[in-house]
Specification:
Helices cover 34% and strands 19% of the residues. By secondary structure, it is α/β, with parallel strands linked by helices. The two termini are 18 Å apart. α5 links the parallel β4 and β5. The longest helix has 23 residues. The strands form three sheets. It has a five-stranded mixed sheet with strand order 1-3-2-4-5, covered by helices on one side. A five-stranded mixed sheet has the order 6-14-13-11-12. The chain has a four-stranded antiparallel sheet with strand order 7-10-8-9. Among the domains are: 61 residues, no CATH class; 69 residues, ATP-grasp fold, A domain (Dna Ligase, domain 1, 2-Layer Sandwich), CATH 3.30.1490.20; 130 residues, D-amino Acid Aminotransferase, Chain A, domain 1 (2-Layer Sandwich), CATH 3.30.470. It is globular, with a radius of gyration of 22 Å. InterPro entries: ATP-grasp. One of its GO terms (molecular function) is ATP binding. This is Glutathione synthase/RimK-type ligase, ATP-grasp superfamily. Keywords: ATP-binding, Ligase, Nucleotide-binding. It comes from Kosakonia oryzae.
């Protein structure tokens, strides 16, 4: 397919997700700023960039349904958005994305702030036989920036066909992205020495209801399973609907408060340390090499970094600092497991949420290329983090340049 220059001119700068994430982390209320964005977009109804910025702002403020409606309006006008390098451009990265919420695609701008990499956001048409309906801008490398989910399986299949014999290198090729989908990954990564991942098994709402009512035992719907279990709706992300269930009776309350007809069920692994605290790490593999991104410490088994008390507790931040400083030891301990993830998924860039079991094995919660990775935390509060996140940024840049160089 011939490559063309990007069309469409806007008076606004495409913002991406980074500024909104930065404000959220800093505790800045940008509601009033969003009201100003609404007024600007209404005064320029044909400016797709303004509407796309507003869509991201709305979703960042948890108004997801409205944000998706605004995003669809923007994409009706324009499918390509340019996030320019903050330094003289060294490389142009074409990022193939899908319409969706903030977890649907790799938020690479959150990692590549102040870089010399141009990011070209190309939103494919998921309903078209050829998803690349808009002219394709000039670029040096392609990254399929789509996170794995059941909903994206068909568009990834069509993208695989569209990208055949593509004249530029393609990272995270479409055929490999589904390997990171929760169910697929839980089966793909079985029988790896030193790695533990509990199979994510599909069950229906009716099957769970039958267990809750005593009509069936848990082992009848998921063989060899006993309580406690982890349950979450199929397609959910970010812990939405995720719950530990300790008994059949507890299923009833869970179903009453959780929507969905299909669920994932997994075994619960107690990964607490000797002090009773849980520690969950985020690691990225870039071209097969592991890098530390963060470690959350909590008294609760379900850890989200933003609510684990990391910003309020200096001791937890010190523990995270030690994790960063000793990461080479961590990576060596789990070298075989991390290599297996890279090799079996076939993805050049992927995020991993993990922990260490009491037996010293690597416990995998989730793998996903669309995990948020950033270097936005306050340097004074997190003095160790910037040093190590610079390693992540550098590795990402070097990988892109390496693949671009191979195409020259």
């Amino acid at each position: 397919m011939p490559l063309t220059t990007e069309s469409g001119v806007s008076s606004a700068r495409f913002l991406g997700m980074a500024p909104f994430l930065r404000m959220s982390i800093a505790g800045v209320d940008f509601t009033s700023a969003t009201q100003e964005m609404i007024a600007q977009a209404q005064n320029a109804p044909e400016d797709a960039v303004l509407w796309m910025n507003l869509a991201t702002a709305m979703m960042s403020l948890k108004h997801e349904e409205l944000g998706l409606q605004i995003q669809a309006q923007a994409l009706d006008m324009q499918r390509v958005y340019h996030w320019p390098a903050r330094q003289p451009t060294k490389l142009r990265l074409l990022m193939l994305m899908v319409p969706g919420n903030l977890s649907a695609n790799i938020p690479l701008d959150c990692l590549m702030e102040d870089s010399d990499i141009d990011l070209i956001y190309y939103y494919v048409d998921p309903l078209n036989d050829n998803p690349l309906t808009a002219p394709v801008p000039e670029h040096d490398v392609v990254m399929v920036a789509i996170g794995a989910s059941d909903e994206q399986e068909s568009v990834l299949l069509r993208l695989e066909y569209a990208l055949r014999n593509w004249p530029k290198p393609v990272l995270n090729p479409p055929k490999n992205v589904p390997t990171s989908e929760r169910h697929n990954a839980s089966l793909l990564l079985q029988n790896v020495p030193g790695l533990v991942i509990c199979p994510a098994l599909h069950v229906s709402r009716q099957a769970l209801h039958d267990v809750a009512c005593g009509q069936k035992a848990l082992a009848d719907i998921v063989a060899d399973h006993d309580f406690p279990i982890i349950v979450r709706p199929v397609g959910s992300h970010g812990g939405h609907g995720l719950q530990k269930i300790d008994s059949a009776a507890a299923i009833t309350a869970y179903l009453e408060e959780t929507a969905g007809e299909e669920f994932f069920v997994s075994r619960f692994v107690d990964y607490s340390g000797e002090d009773g605290l849980f520690r969950k790490m985020r690691v990225v593999l870039i071209d097969g090499k592991p890098f530390a991104c963060h470690m959350g410490v909590s008294s609760h088994w379900m850890i989200h970094y933003v609510n684990a008390g990391m910003y309020e507790d200096a001791d937890k931040r010190a523990q995270e600092g030690r994790f960063f400083n000793e990461f080479s030891d961590f990576a060596e301990r789990h070298r075989e497991a991390l290599n297996a993830i890279s090799q079996r998924t076939g993805l050049e860039y992927i995020g991993i949420d993990c922990a260490e079991t009491r037996d010293g094995e690597l416990l995998i919660f989730e793998i996903d290329p669309a995990m948020v990775v950033h270097a936005m935390d306050d340097e004074e509060m997190f003095p160790n983090k910037q040093i190590h996140m610079l390693k992540v940024k550098t590795a990402m840049r070097e990988m892109l340049l390496k693949y671009a160089g191979q195409a020259l």
